[in-house]
Design goal:
The complex is a heterodimer of chains A (592) and B (297).
Chain A: H1 6-10, H2 12-20, E1 23-31, H3 37-47, H4 53-66, H5 83-88, E2 95-100, E3 104-110, H6 118-125, E4 130-136, H7 143-154, E5 159-165, H8 174-188, E6 195-200, H9 224-230, E7 243-245, E8 248-250, E9 258-262, E10 267-268, E11 273-276, E12 282-289, E13 298-299, E14 303-308, E15 319-321, E16 328-339, E17 350-354, E18 359-371, E19 378-379, E20 389-402, H10 409-412, E21 413-418, E22 424-433, H11 449-456, E23 461-465, H12 476-486, E24 491-495, H13 496-504, H14 509-525, E25 529-533, H15 538-548, E26 554-560, E27 564-566, E28 569-573, H16 579-589
Parallel strand pairs in A: 1-3, 1-4, 4-5, 5-6, 23-25, 23-26, 24-25, 26-28
Antiparallel strand pairs in A: 2-3, 7-15, 8-9, 9-14, 10-13, 11-12, 11-15, 12-14, 16-20, 16-22, 17-18, 17-21, 18-19, 18-20, 21-22, 27-28
Helix pairs in contact in A: 12-16, 13-14
Chain B: H1 3-21, E1 25-28, H2 33-46, E2 55-58, H3 65-78, E3 82-85, H4 88-92, H5 97-121, E4 125-127, E5 144-147, E6 175-178, H6 186-196, E7 207-214, E8 217-220, E9 235-240, E10 253-254, H7 260-269, H8 287-293
Parallel strand pairs in B: 1-2, 1-4, 2-3, 4-6
Antiparallel strand pairs in B: 5-6, 7-8, 7-9, 9-10
Helix pairs in contact in B: 1-2, 2-6, 6-7
Classes of the chains: A alpha/beta (592), B alpha/beta (297).
The complex binds guanosine-5'-triphosphate and magnesium ion.
Chain lengths: 592, 297
C-alpha cells in the first residue's frame, strides 16, 4: 500500500507521474538485541498508514496471542513473520519492507540483533545506503551495538542514524541522551562515518518517529522519517571509471554477439574504448542494445547489452573497463573477511571465491589480524570464528580483476563458498593486491600442509573406501586415482591389505587401521590426495575425521541405495551401472 | 535512475545470473500480473535473443478459462517454450476444490504438482514471481532461495546473501527458487505494467460478469463445475480480480475500474491487502510459511 495522498482520488494520472520520478532509499535498522528495531519499523509503517485492514486485524489478534505488550499492539509482529520469531519474540532473519512518502520510496531491511544471527544482519547491510543504529536508552552501548556499527562501516555505509530508543523509559531525559551520544561519537570516530545523526525516540510511543515530539522539547533536530526523506546519499557510481562485469554472452545468431551485464560504475557511449580485463584486448562499443531500442548512453545501475566493433574473446566473468583507468589484476589479495559460518575459517582450505560475475578456487593463506569489535583494536589470530572480522591474505587460483572495495563496492566484493557444503561462509572486501607471490617474510613458518598443497594447486584429502569393495566396484579406487591424475592432481593409493605386510601384519585389526591412518595423515601433511582402501567401521572413520582432520578433509566412501553426500560421508549408489559412471559422479560432486 | 528503472535493472541482473549459473532453469509462469512482468523482464534481459529457458505452468485444471486463453496467446505471440504440468494423480482422485476445500486442493494440485514437475524435468532453478511485500514470511526470503532435494525451505537457516553476488551452488537434486521481483511492491508492478504496456489477463479489469456470493466471497461462474447451493443465485455484477488463481478459490471485488489507472487508483484507496481475496492464506496464521516449507512456491 502506498502512502496517503489527495492526488490519488483527484487525479490519478498526475499522481502516477509524480510517483515515476521518485528516488529510492535503502536502509537498515540494526543494533543490539531487543533495542526495538522491529518495533520501530512496525511503528513507522503503522503511523504512515501502510497497513491494510486485514493485516491490522491479524496484527491485533497476534499481539494478544504472542505479543510482548500484553493487550496492546506489538508492532514488532508486523516484521517478525516467521513462526519461530513469534514464539521467541526475537528477530532471526532480515525482513524487507516497502513504503513511500511524498518525497521518497523506501526499502527497509529490519535486521536481527542477536549475535548468533549476525550473518543475516550483514545480508541486510550489504545493500543498504543508510543505517539506523538503535540503542536502548537504559542500557547504552552494547557489544552488539559496536559490532553492528563496525560491520556497517565495513560494508561501506557512510551515513548513520543513532536512534536512542525507549526514551519513554528514561523520562525523556536529555542528559541520558547526551551521554549516549557522547559515548557513541567517541567509539565511532574510528569508523569513518561521514555523518552521525542522533535522534531520541520511543518506537513504542512514536516519539520523534514520524513527527517531532513534545516530550523532547530540548531536541530540535528532525524526526526520524523527516531525516530519512532528506538524507543525502552520494551516488558517485556514474562518475567513477567504467566497469561492467560480463554476465552472459548473447548469441542469437552468427551476426549478433552481445555482452550482457549491469554497469556497476561509470558511463558508456557508442564509440567509447573498453578493455577486457583478463586478456588486455581493447575494442570500442558499437551499440548499446535494449529491447526498447539502442541507447545513446548508459550509466551505472543500468542492465544493458553491449556490442563491440571487434571480434574479441570475451566470456562470463570478464570485466569490461575503461582502458585509461584499468582495474587491478592479481591472484594474491589482501581483504577483510567477515566470517559467517559456524565452522571456522580453515586457512589453506580451498574455498570458492565468487565475485560480481566470476568464480575461482581460493585459499586463505593467513589471517593477518582480527578486529576486536569493542575496541576496534587489531588482535593476532590464526583463524576466524563465526561473526569475526579479520584482514586476510588470499591466494586465488587464477588472476582476477578488481578494484579496492573502498573505490568500488561492486568490483571489490566477493563471497567465499564452502566447496563441500556449498554454504556461503564469508563476505569479502578487497583492500589491495599483494605484490607477487607472498615473500618469505610474510609466509608463516614452519610450512604446513596448506602451503605444500597450494604448490600442487589442490586440497589435501583422504578418500577412505571403508566398505568392502565388492565385485562391481573392485576397480573404483584405481580408476578414481587415474581420473584425478588426469586432472592434474597429486595422488597416492594406499591398500590396507598390501600394507599389512610392511606395517606389522601381526597386529590386530584396530591397531592396523590406526597405522594405515597415520600413513594417510602424513601424506595429506605432504599435500596429497590419498585414496585409502581399508575396510573399517564407519564410526571409527568418522571419529578419525573429527579428531585428526580439518572439516572436509576426510571423505568416508560407503555403499547404499541412493547416491548422497552428507558432510564427510559419501554414499555410492548400488544402482549406478558402471564404475566409470561412479568415478564421474565422484569427480563431479566432490571438491577435488 | 527512477525507482522503477532500478527495480527493472535489478531483476534483469537476477534473471541473467540464473540463466548463466544453472544448467537447467525454468520460469514458472502463473499467468498472473507478476508473471506478466517477470516474462517481460526476461524478454528484456536476453533481447534480441529469446530467454534461454522454458516456461512452465502448473495447471490445477481449475484456473479461470480466460487465463488459459491468455496464456496460449502470449506463448504463441512471443514464441516461448511452454511446459504444462497437471498432477494426473490428483485428477484421477477427482480432487475438487468445491468438495475437498482449498487446503487439500492446493496441496495436491499445486504444491504436489509443482514438485512432480520439477522432479520430472530435473530443473535445478525455478523462477517465481513472488514479491516480498505480499506476505510476512515472503518478506524474509532470499532472492536465491535454497531448496533441499525434497523441495523444503528452511527459513531458520537461509544462506547469507551479500550484495548482488548470489550463491548458485547446489548438489544434484537440490535446487534454487529465484525471485527476480522480490523488491517490487504491488504498486510498482501495476505502474510498470502501465508504463510498459504489458498485456495482462482481462480479468484484472472490471466488467459485468456472472458471480455467486459464497462464504463472503464473490465467485465467478466460470464453468458448469460450479454447482449452486440452496439459496444461491447467479448475479451479474461489475467485478474484477486483484489476484488470479483457481476460480473457486479466488474472490472477485465489485468494481467499475476498467482501465489501468483506474485499478491503480482503486488499489491505492483500498484498505485491504491483495491476498485477502485468496482463500488459502486465511486457513491459519503462519500458514504461508508452512506451505512454503513444504514446497509451495
Ligand atoms: N517502553 C518501550 N518499549 C519498547 C520500545 N521499543 C521497543 N520496545 C519493546 O522492546 C521489546 C523488544 O522490541 P523489538 O522491536 O522486538 O526489538 P528488536 O531490536 O527488534 O529485537 P531483535 O530483533 O530480536 O534484536 C519489545 O517488547 C518492545 O515492545 C520503546 O520505545 N519503549
Ligand atoms: Mg527485531
Amino acid at each position: 500500500m502506498a502512502h496517503q495522498s489527495e492526488l490519488i482520488a483527484e487525479d490519478i494520472q498526475a499522481y502516477l507521474k509524480s510517483q515515476e520520478q521518485k528516488g529510492l532509499l535503502r536502509f537498515i535498522t540494526c543494533g543490539s538485541v531487543d533495542d526495538g528495531k522491529s518495533t520501530l519499523i512496525g511503528r513507522l509503517l503503522w503511523d504512515s498508514k501502510m497497513i491494510f485492514e486485514d493485516q491490522l486485524a491479524a496484527l491485533s489478534a497476534d499481539s494478544k496471542r504472542v505479543g510482548t505488550q500484553g493487550e496492546n499492539i506489538d508492532y514488532a509482529l508486523l516484521l517478525d513473520g516467521l513462526q519461530a520469531e513469534r514464539e521467541q519474540g526475537i528477530t532471526i532473519d532480515v525482513a524487507y519492507r516497502y513504503f513511500s512518502t511524498d518525497k521518497r520510496k523506501f526499502i527497509v531491511a529490519d535486521t536481527p540483533g542477536h549475535e548468533q544471527y549476525t550473518r543475516n544482519m550483514v545480508t541486510g547491510a550489504s545493500t543498504a545506503q543508510v543505517a539506523v543504529i538503535l540503542v536502548d536508552a537504559r542500557k547504552g552501548l552494547m557489544t552488539q551495538t559496536r559490532r553492528h556499527s563496525y560491520l556497517v562501516s565495513l560494508v561501506g555505509i557512510r551515513r548513520v542514524v543513532l536512534a536512542v530508543n525507549k526514551m519513554d523509559l528514561v523520562d525523556y531525559s536529555a542528559d541520558r541522551f547526551e551521554a549516549i551520544c557522547k559515548e557513541y561519537q567517541l567509539f565511532a570516530s574510528g569508523l569513518g562515518f561521514k555523518e552521525i545523526t542522533a535522534i531520541p525516540i520511543s518506537a513504542l510511543e512514536g516519539d520523534n518517529v514520524l513527527h517531532s515530539s513534545e516530550r523532547t522539547p530540548w531536541y530540535d533536530g528532525p524526526a526520524l522519517l523527516e531525516h530519512l526523506e532528506t538524507v543525502q546519499v552520494e551516488d558517485s557510481a556514474a562518475s567513477r571509471p567504467f566497469r561492467l562485469p560480463v554476465q552472459w554472452v548473447n548469441r542469437p545468431d552468427l551476426d549478433f554477439r552481445g555482452f550482457c551485464g549491469t554497469i556497476v560504475s561509470g558511463t558508456i557511449r557508442p564509440g567509447d574504448a573498453i578493455v577486457v580485463s583478463s586478456s588486455g584486448q581493447t575494442s570500442r562499443v558499437a551499440r548499446i542494445v535494449t529491447m526498447g531500442g539502442d541507447l545513446p548512453q548508459a550509466v551505472a545501475g543500468q542492465a544493458v547489452t553491449l556490442t563491440l566493433t571487434d571480434e574479441i574473446d570475451i566470456s562470463r566473468g570478464d570485466l569490461l573497463a575503461a582502458p585509461e583507468q584499468r582495474p587491478a589484476q592479481s591472484d594474491q589479495l589482501e581483504a577483510h573477511l567477515a566470517w559467517l559460518h559456524e565452522q571456522p575459517l580453515a586457512p589453506g582450505r580451498s574455498y570458492l571465491l565468487k565475485t560480481a560475475a566470476g568464480s575461482a578456487p581460493a585459499q586463505v593463506r593467513q589471517v593477518k589480524h582480527k578486529i576486536d569489535v569493542n575496541t576496534l583494536q587489531q588482535q593476532s589470530a590464526e583463524t576466524l570464528e563465526l561473526n569475526e572480522v579479520g584482514l586476510c591474505q588470499i591466494a586465488v587460483s587464477k588472476s582476477i580483476a578488481f578494484d579496492p572495495y573502498g573505490d568500488n563496492e561492486a568490483t571489490g566484493s566477493f563471497i567465499l563458498i564452502d566447496r563441500l557444503s556449498n554454504a556461503t561462509v564469508a563476505a569479502g572486501m578487497i583492500d589491495r593486491a599483494l605484490s607477487g607471490k607472498p615473500s618469505e617474510g610474510q609466509r608463516r613458518l614452519p610450512l604446513d600442509k596448506a602451503d605444500r598443497a597450494a604448490l600442487k594447486g589442490q586440497q589435501p584429502k583422504i578418500v577412505w573406501f571403508s566398505a568392502p569393495l565388492e565385485e562391481t566396484i573392485s576397480e573404483l579406487p584405481q580408476r578414481l586415482e587415474s581420473r584425478l591424475h588426469s586432472l592434474g592432481r597429486h595422488t597416492c593409493l594406499l591398500d590396507g591389505e598390501t600394507l599389512r605386510a610392511t606395517l606389522g601384519g601381526t597386529l590386530g585389526d584396530e591397531a592396523h587401521l590406526q597405522r594405515v591412518a597415520e600413513v594417510a595423515l602424513l601424506m595429506i601433511e605432504a599435500g596429497l590426495i590419498v585414496l585409502v582402501v581399508a575396510t573399517a567401521p564407519s564410526a571409527w572413520v568418522e571419529q578419525l575425521a573429527e579428531d585428526r582432520c580439518l572439516a572436509g578433509e576426510l571423505l568416508n566412501i560407503k555403499r547404499g541405495k541412493a547416491a548422497v553426500i552428507d558432510g564427510a560421508t559419501v554414499v555410492l549408489s548400488d544402482q549406478t551401472a558402471s564404475q566409470a559412471e561412479q568415478v564421474e559422479w565422484l569427480v563431479e560432486n566432490l571438491p577435488f | 535512475m527512477t525507482h522503477l528503472e532500478q527495480l527493472e535493472a535489478e531483476s534483469i541482473h537476477i534473471i541473467r545470473e540464473v540463466a548463466a549459473e544453472f544448467e537447467n532453469p525454468v520460469m514458472l509462469y502463473s499467468v498472473g500480473k507478476d508473471s506478466a512482468v517477470m516474462l517481460h523482464l526476461a524478454r528484456k534481459a536476453f533481447y534480441p535473443a529469446r530467454p534461454p529457458f522454458p516456461l512452465m505452468h502448473v495447471d490445477t485444471t481449475w484456473k479461470f478459462r480466460e487465463m488459459i486463453e491468455f496464456r496460449d496467446r502470449i506463448v504463441d505471440e512471443y514464441g516461448f517454450d511452454l511446459l504444462i504440468h497437471v498432477n494426473q494423480e490428483g485428477v484421477k482422485q477427482g480432487i475438487d476444490p468445491f468438495v475437498h476445500g482449498s487446503a487439500l486442493h492446493t496441496d495436491v494440485m499445486k504444491t504436489e504438482g509443482l514438485k512432480q514437475a520439477l522432479d520430472k524435468y530435473k530443473f535445478d532453478a525455478a523462477f517465481g514471481g513472488a514479491r516480498r511485500d505480499e506476505e510476512k514470511s515472503r518478506a524474509k526470503e532470499r532472492i536465491f532461495s535454497f531448496r533441499t532435494a525434497s523441495h523444503r525451505w528452511d527459513p531458520k537457516n537461509q544462506r547469507p546473501e551479500l550484495w548482488n553476488i548470489y550463491n548458485a551452488r547446489v548438489q544434484p537434486g537440490e535446487s534454487i527458487r529465484a525471485f527476480p521481483l522480490s523488491n517490487w511492491t504491488e504498486l510498482d508492478v501495476w505502474q510498470y505494467i502501465h508504463l510498459e504496456n504489458i498485456p495482462i489477463v482481462p480479468l484484472y479489469l472490471a466488467k459485468e460478469r456472472p458471480v455467486v456470493e459464497r462464504d463472503g466471497m464473490l465467485i465467478l461462474v466460470d464453468d458448469d463445475r460450479l454447482k449452486l447451493r440452496p439459496g444461491e443465485k447467479v448475479q451479474t455484477k461489475s467485478v474484477r480480480f486483484r489476484t488470479l488463481g483457481c476460480y473457486p478459490l479466488t474472490g472477485a471485488v465489485e468494481s467499475t475500474a476498467a482501465t489501468l489507472p483506474e485499478i491503480i487508483q482503486e488499489m491505492l484507496l483500498t484498505r485491504t491487502s491483495e491476498r485477502q481475496g485468496r482463500l488459502i492464506d486465511h486457513d491459519q496464521s503462519g500458514s504461508m510459511e508452512k506451505k512454503k516449507q513444504e514446497g509451495y512456491f
